[in-house]
Amino acid sequence: MSSPRRRYSSCWEASVANKRQRGAMLIAFAILLILILGFIGLALDVGQVIGRKTELQNLADNAALAAAPELVGTAAGLASAVARAKASAAGQSAYRRRMQGVALSDAAIRFAASADAPDEAWHAAGAVPDPAAALYVRVDTRDSTPALGQVATAFLGAWSPALRTLETGGRAVAGRSSLRLTPLAVCALSPAPAALRLNPGPPERREALEYGFRRGVAYNLFNLNPHGAAPEHFLLNPISPLGAISPAGQLADAVVAPFVCSGTVLHGRIGSQSVHLHRPFPVALWASFNARFNQYGANQCDPLTAPPDTNILPFPNSLASWWMNQPAAAHALPATSGALLTVADQPPGAAGAAATLPATSYGPLWSFARAVQYASPKPAGDYAPFANNTWAGLYPGLPAAPASNSFYPPSGTPYASNAFQSAPVGHVGVAQRRVLHVALLDCPLPAGSDVLAPVLAIGRFFMTVPASSAALSAEFAGLAAEQSLGGPAELLQ
Fold first, then answer.
1. At residue 4, what are phi and psi to the nearest 5 degrees?
2. What is the pLDDT of residues 445-467, one digit of tens each?
3. Strand, helix or coil at 263?
4. 312 contact partners, CB below 8 Å, separation of at least 6
5. pLDDT grade, residue 411 (50/70/90)?
6. Which of 205, 298, 301, 345 could form a Cys-Cys staple with 287, CB 3.0–4.6 A?
C-alpha cells in the first residue's frame, strides 16, 4: 500500500497539471478568438469592397448601355451619349444598395473607334478627333471625380494605416457590333451621289437621281447592270474582317442564310474600308428574303430573329381598288438598251420611248416612296416629294401614261395606308422589315468570283413582292446613312 504522503503528492501534481492544461487552453482559445475575430473583420471589410465593386460595375454597365445607342457618328450624338450616361448613373441605380445615384464626371465617359482601343485612344466627348468613327463608349468609375469607389475599412485599418481605405471601381465598354445591312450588293446606276433628271413634260419636272436610281420606281435587283447585259449582284460577306478576302467556308449557304434572313452583318462600321464580295449572289438564298412576308417554310429563318413585316400585302395584287393602272409586273420592265436598266431609266424624251411604253411597263409606282424634286444643295432633312398629279410628266407612255387614282392616299404612301395592309398571322411583325439596306458599288468591278471593293453608299429598297430565284423586286426609297443602321447596343467588355 502507498503511504498517505505519496498519495497526497500525486494528487497535488495532478491538480497542478490540470491547472496548467486549463491555462494553456485559455491561451489557445484567446489566440483562436483573436484569429476568428480577425477573419470575421477581414470578411466584413472584403465584403464591403466586393459589394461596392458590384454596385459600381452595374452602374458602369447601365451607363454604357444607355450611352451607346446615341453614337451615330456625330458630335451631337457624342454629347447626347454623355448626357444619357450621366442620367443613368444619377437615377436610382445599383449604387449604395439602390438607395441613391451618383454624379459621373466627364472624365469617366470616353469614346473610341474600337472596343479594344488602347487607353490613349479613348477621348472625352469634346476631344474626339473623328466623331464619325467614335462608335464605342467606355465608362470607368475610377476616373470620376469625386471618387466613387473608396471604402472605409473597420478592421483592416487596425493592422495597417495603408488599409484604412480601399479603392475599387467598375468599367464597361459598349457599342454596336452589327449593322442592319442586307448581305447583298448591287451596282450603282451612276457614281454620282445626286444628279438632275429633266423630265420635259410639259411642264418640265426636275427630278433628283441618287446614284442613278429614281425614288418610287421598283428595280429587279437580280437583273441590274449599268455596264452590260449580264446581271451583276454580289453576296457581301457578313462576317469577314474588312479589307480581306476570307475562306470560302464563311460563304456557305448555311452560314450566310441567317444574316440574309435578319438583314444584318457583323460589322460595327464599314466607312471607307473594302468589303469581301462574292459573285453572284447565291440562288439558294433568295427564299431567305421572304421571312419579311411571313414565309418560313422554304428558308432557314427564325421568326424571333427575322420577324415578318407588320404589312405583308404583296404589291401588286388583285385588289379592285388599286391606286394606279394595274401593273404587269412587280417592277419596271427591262429597257431595250445594252445595259440592264429599267424602262423608267431611259433618257427623258428618248425618241420613240413614250410610243412604246404602255402604263403597265412601269410596274407599281410609289408603293413606299414618292419621286423627289431636285435641289442643289440638298435641302436639310430631304428632298421635297412630287405630288401624285405629276405622274404623266414623270412617266410618259402611250396610249396613256400611268396615273394615280382616287385610291392613292392623300398623304403618305400605300404601304402605310389601311386599305393596302395585311398583318402577318402567327408572328409579331416589325414595321419596315420589307426595307432592304443594300450596298451600292462603283462598277464595273474586277473579274473573279471573290473581290474586294469599297461601298459607295447604302440604298434603301422596299420589297414590293416576295422574292423568287429570278427576281428581287424592290422600290428605291433613297439613301441611308451608315451611322443610322447600327444594330442593338451591346456590352463588349
1. -55, -40
2. 999 999 999 999 999 999 999 99
3. coil
4. 292, 293, 294, 422, 423, 424, 429
5. confident
6. 298
